[in-house]
Write a structure and sequence with these properties.
About 40% of the residues lie in helices and about 15% in strands. It is built from eleven helices and ten strands. The strands form two sheets. An eight-stranded parallel barrel has the order 3-4-5-6-7-8-9-10, surrounded by six helices. It has a two-stranded antiparallel ribbon with strand order 1-2. α1 packs across α2, α2 packs across α3 and α8 runs antiparallel to α11. It is globular and about 55 Å long.
Length: about 350
């Protein structure tokens, strides 16, 4: 397992990160524990979760994934072997994250409530990387057409970025978090966090967790240069395009227990160009004699601006396959073949 520096911290994290969002919905507590045991044995020391999880988000499963990690920490005694990342929800109309029924936003009061609740569920005294799951600003994201600009009114009670940084400073001083990161953030937002922290002497953003895959390389347009020059490395999620790049949904297939089969909420991957791109990448993997999941994950893993690739699996066979992606050599020739497909079907699934 390769290890990479997390931002400008002294933390070395595995270049594969264990994602957890299915635990408590598609996976039981025992299955989540087994995945953590196996991942640690394979050299993975980086786990990612969120107060929102399990997915799809709903009031009755909110926080359940963190609880499963917490019971594993208590049972295994392995807290000190894990770099733990979790997230606080951003602005939304959802009113079931906070005790008073408020709709969510990144106010000081809500962040403080959220971090204390996460610490309790996780059965730990500190969080290594505390991430803003999505911005407090009104911005497009989560499968919206992010390649087309949409005007959005400023929220009257929008929380200023420097105020959010001040809350992060409070949490660091209190020992509740060690570092903070962003998620589902834009290049402008990322640089604004960097600038405000430097101008005011506040904690610096160390990472950004955005979607990045063969069918969504938008991060390369503005984010990659920031990641390299400012040491705000990408924690890439959805590098398998929520399972589509494994090939399991080709030709209309609906595997039993798969996310699309259960929840029918993956429409961003089902436009005509997306389907053609997915077929082309799967055909290339077949020609190369490699599992398409391994090729897709290996591509993300090989990018110089990526700190870690977040994987998620609902069974141990999938988990073992995903981890094996680090063994595949992403040669210049393979990258050139991938880029040829990308130029034909550029970012069809943002």
């Amino acid at each position: 397992m390769e290890f990479r520096k997390l931002g400008r911290t002294d933390l070395n994290v595995s270049s594969i990160c264990l994602g957890t969002m299915t635990w408590g919905e598609q996976n039981t507590e025992a299955e989540g524990h087994a995945q953590m045991d196996y991942s640690l044995e394979q050299g993975i020391n980086f786990f990612d979760t969120a107060e929102l999880y399990a997915v799809p988000p709903k009031p009755e499963t909110k926080g359940r994934t963190e609880e499963i990690i917490g019971t594993w920490f208590k049972k295994s005694g392995n807290r000190d072997k894990v770099v733990l990342a979790t997230k606080v929800v951003g602005r939304s109309a959802q009113d079931w994250h906070r005790e008073d029924g408020s709709t969510s936003q990144l106010s000081r009061a809500q962040i403080m409530e959220a971090v204390d609740a996460s610490l309790k569920r996780l059965q730990t005294d500190y969080i290594d990387l505390y991430q803003l799951h999505w911005p407090d600003r009104n911005v497009s994201g989560f499968g919206s057409v992010s390649t087309i600009w949409q005007d959005a009114d400023l929220a009257e009670d929008e929380n200023a970025i420097h105020e959010t940084l001040e809350v992060m400073q409070e949490l660091v001083k209190a020992g509740k978090i060690r570092h903070f990161g962003l998620s589902n953030e834009s290049p402008w937002g990322t640089m604004k966090f960097v600038q405000e922290s430097e101008a005011r002497g506040l904690p610096r953003v160390q990472s950004i967790q955005n979607a990045y895959s063969l069918v969504n390389r938008l991060f390369e347009v503005g984010g990659a240069e920031i990641a390299q020059r400012e040491n705000v490395g990408l924690l890439a999620y959805s590098s398998l395009a929520q399972g589509y790049l494994t090939g399991k949904y080709r030709n209309g297939a609906l595997p039993s227990g798969a996310r699309k089969t259960l929840f029918k909420r993956l429409g961003r991957y089902e436009n005509p160009f997306g389907q053609k791109a997915i077929d082309a990448y799967c055909d290339l993997a077949e020609e190369l004699g490699v599992d398409p999941a391994v090729m897709a994950l290996s591509f993300a893993h090989s990018r110089s601006f990526v700190t870690s690739v977040i994987i998620g699996a609902t069974n141990m066979e999938q988990l073992a396959t995903d981890i094996r992606a680090t063994d595949f050599e992403m040669t210049d020739e393979v990258v050139a073949r991938i880029n040829d497909i990308h130029l034909q079907y550029s970012n069809p699934c943002p």
